[in-house]
Please model this.
Amino acid sequence: MSSTITTGSIPRLLQDGVKSVFGNSYKSYEDTVTGLYSKDTSKKAYEVDVQMEGFGLASEKTEGDDITFDSRRQGFAPKYIHAAYAKGFIVTREALDDELYGQLKKGASSLARAMAITKETRAAALFNTAFSTTSAMLGADGVSMINTAHGNGPSGGTFANRLAVDADFSEASLEDMLKLIMRAKDSRGLPIKLKGMKLVGHSDLTFDFQRVLKSELQNDTNNNAINAVRSLGLLSGGFVTTPFLDANAKAWFIITDAMDGLKYYQRTPLEFDQDMSFTSKNVRYSAYERYSFGYSDPRAIFGSSGV
Model:
């Protein structure tokens, strides 16, 4: 089938009497990209981050002895390779002239919608493959984004950003995840002050997230006890739910305040173009954008695949 839109593609739109044209103007979900990732721009083909470990604990110095000296080394180097995304359509001059309802001339808005949904899909891919063991989906440390054995770096050892036993979202499992976050350590095994900021999950979890985060008292119990998560001011960023996290509707995540976590690089902003073929008089419309999604420090996100 030809990809060119001709008068034969839209016979009804060439006639008077069509009451309405539907299917091309659905509402879209609000942008969730900036709610999940920190945004930066890039002027290169790719960007690279480098992990730099800190110092270990200080040693006791006895009188007259030399100070113990420590060293620092670089560790993992996550790479962000920008991918280009584009889409277009071609319309014959005759179809443009004869179409009576202005639908073809509104094609740019349809392209914009397609490009926006593409970006949401690409942003969700990192979450949809968060537990994958496929080599193409592994992070710089060689394991999945959500894992119980992330590499610490040059000094060795591992850490977890996943519950030891996966659990569906509930007030109890949320508290377990927040405890795991509070126990976080740096690459040298020293405690760090890490705080959960935002819940993330499939749109099916919207109601559960709302009940747990907004209840004054403990959710779904007869106990006259406060909602500890709310009273402690945890997850102050609220929650983000989206139908694009559709690989596992039970999976849920917490984004923390760790620096250099989930990143979105905009290499080329969304741009539109059009031209007309001199010989055929066909009109071509196009949209183009280039960006990348990824993460550097896995401590920036914790999660559970549910059960």
About this structure: The chain is about 20% helix and 25% strand. The mean pLDDT is 88. Residues 107-128 form the longest helix (22 residues).
